C-alpha cells in the first residue's frame, strides 16, 4: 500500500526531484561554476579548538569558585594552582592547534578576536581593580590575575573560532581560477 500523497503537477517524493538542478544548489550539479572546489564548512573536521577552550574555561571557573568559597579568609591555594596550571596548559595547547589550521578564514578570526579581546581585557581590568580595591593581596591576587588573564584570552579565542570556522577560507595562494 502506497501512503504517499502526490500533488497535481509534481513527482512522487520517492522519485527524486523533478528537475536534477533542484538538488544542485546555487553552483549547479557539478559544483561551483568558477572552477574552485567547494568546501563543506559545516561538515569539515577541524581541531577541537572550541572544546578545549571550554575545558580551559571550566578549569578557571572551578578554580575561581573554589577560591571564592573560602573568602573572606585566606583560601588554600593548592587546588586553585593546579586548576590554573591545567587551564593555562589547555590554552597553550589550544593556541598551538589553532596555529596549525589550514584552509581557515583567518581574516574573520582576527576581526572577531580583536574586538572580543578588547572587551574582555576591559572586563578583566575592572575585575582586577575590584580585587585590589577589596584588599586581595599576595599569592591570592597573583593566582586570581592569572585566572583572569586565561579567561580574557580564552573567550575571545572561542568566539573568533566559532565565527571563522563557518566562513569561506581564502583561495589557496598560487591557484588560478578559470573564468
How do the helices and strands line up, and which of them pair or pack?
Blueprint: H1 49-69, H2 78-99, H3 106-133, H4 138-164
Helix pairs in contact: 1-2, 1-4, 2-4, 3-4
Kindly list the characteristics that best describe this protein:
mainly alpha, 55% helix, single chain
Structural class: mainly alpha
Q: Give the overall average pLDDT.
A: 80
Low-confidence stretches: 14-33
Reading the helices and strands in chain order gives HHHH
Beta-strand content bin:
under 5%
Which shape, going by the Cα principal axes? elongated
Describe the structure.
The protein has a domain at about 50-165. The longest helix has 28 residues, at about 105-135. The chain has four helices and no strands. It is an all-alpha fold and about 180 residues long. It has helices at about 50-70, 80-100, 105-135, 140-165.
Would you kindly provide a brief summary of this structure?
The chain has 179 residues and is an all-alpha fold. The protein contains four helices and no strands. The protein has a domain at 49-164.
Amino acid at each position: 500500500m502506497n501512503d504517499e500523497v502526490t500533488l497535481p503537477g509534481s513527482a512522487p517524493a520517492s522519485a527524486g526531484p523533478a528537475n536534477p538542478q533542484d538538488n544542485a544548489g546555487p553552483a549547479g550539479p557539478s559544483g561551483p561554476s568558477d572552477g574552485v572546489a567547494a568546501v563543506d564548512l559545516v561538515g569539515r573536521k577541524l581541531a577541537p579548538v572550541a572544546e578545549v577552550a571550554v575545558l580551559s574555561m571550566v578549569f578557571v571557573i572551578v578554580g575561581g569558585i573554589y577560591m571564592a568559597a573560602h573568602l573572606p579568609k585566606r583560601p588554600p591555594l593548592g587546588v586553585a594552582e593546579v586548576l590554573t596550571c591545567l587551564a593555562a596548559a589547555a590554552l597553550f595547547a589550544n593556541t598551538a592547534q589553532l596555529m596549525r589550521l589550514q584552509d581557515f578564514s583567518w581574516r574573520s578570526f582576527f576581526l572577531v578576536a580583536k574586538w572580543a579581546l578588547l572587551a574582555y581585557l576591559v572586563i578583566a581590568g575592572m575585575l582586577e581593580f575590584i580585587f585590589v580595591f577589596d584588599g586581595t593581596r599576595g599569592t591570592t591576587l597573583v593566582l586570581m590575575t592569572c585566572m583572569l588573564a586565561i579567561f580574557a584570552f580564552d573567550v575571545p579565542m572561542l568566539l573568533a573560532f566559532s565565527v571563522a570556522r563557518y566562513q569561506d577560507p581564502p583561495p589557496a595562494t598560487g591557484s588560478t581560477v578559470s573564468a
